[in-house]
Amino acid sequence: MKAKKLFFTFLTIIIGILTYNISASAANNNADIPFTMETIHPNDQINKSTSYIDALYKPGQQQKLQVKVRNSSNTTQHFIVSASDATTSNGLAIDYTKNKQKLIGSPKLSELINGNADQAIAMPAKSSKIVTFNLTMPREQFKGIIMGGISVYKDDRFYQQNNNNNKGVSINNRFVYSTAVLLRNQKGNVLPDIKLVDAKQAPNNQSPAIVTTLKNDKRNFISGVKTRSTIKDKDGKKVAENSTNLGQIAPISQFDLSTPLNETLSPGEYTLDGQASASDGQNWTWHKKIIITQQNFDNTQKNIVTNKKPFPWAMVIIITLIVVILLLIGLLLYLLLKRRKNEQ
Predict the structure, then answer these.
(1) How far apart are CA 301 and CA 261, in angstroms?
(2) Are residues 39 and 145 in the same domain?
(3) Do both 179 and 204 map to the same domain?
(4) Helix axes 313-343, 2-28, angle to 10 degrees
(5) Up-side HSE of residue 252: CA atoms within 13 Å toward CB?
(6) Of 61, 158, 273, 323, which one has the fewest beta carbons inside 10 Å?
(7) Are 73 and 112 within one domain?
(8) pTM (whole model) above 0.70
């Protein structure tokens, strides 16, 4: 009976550990988001039914951009409210936060803000606060739009110490709430455009790829973007193809579009053919001859991970637990049979 009790005790502990890990993982996936942000439309708002700012200002006019931040938690929270340029990420999405992507023209929103574009605020529990950015429109009239965004997120300086005190490895996800800002000084839009800048073989996320650099040098954004890229060798044989859907491209922005490769392309001559379309029916195409040198091949090969899979520790642990449980069950059966034999 002691062996039987020991077995069930051990089994209960194992089940408890597994259940705790699953519950903890599920709890960690529910990020705490204790804030919201609401746009305050200016008097010169073009369409007040939109959730973002879209205003028509005169050249040189001074104006205020305002948002209302609400702390819905039961404790004091610290936030950063930031006004930034709208850029295009390499995943074909419009990004309203500060990042490495750059715009290729002026004027832009970051140049119009008077004072600090990053405001730190402390908010008591269950409170709201209006945050204001003062700006001055360009003195020279421009066509199209200046596009940016206002974002709010937790101020890491007040939470980093608590994270450092936690033992073990932790992953901190930053939730950012953003709203778009569109500034104009004349009615009507300009047609956006997509142009090829360059294309070459390069590492992308530790894998080989043909990286195509594109730009939209017009002052209008593009929505519902679909792309297709095809790579062929000098004999016209297709060696790679990739497509994307539901992309967005910011005005006057430059970005990369990657076509993944199964392996690094050997030195030689290749061609890239690309096409893109927008939800409004516009279409663009580009063609590029790509010469891959031995140096490009060596540099790409050196900076990728070649079919190295991570060691399956989780599978090893699961198999080990199953083996231990089976051994304990076998031991229990052996002890029970031995006891029954002795009783007979």
Answers:
(1) 12
(2) yes
(3) no
(4) 160
(5) 18
(6) 323
(7) yes
(8) yes
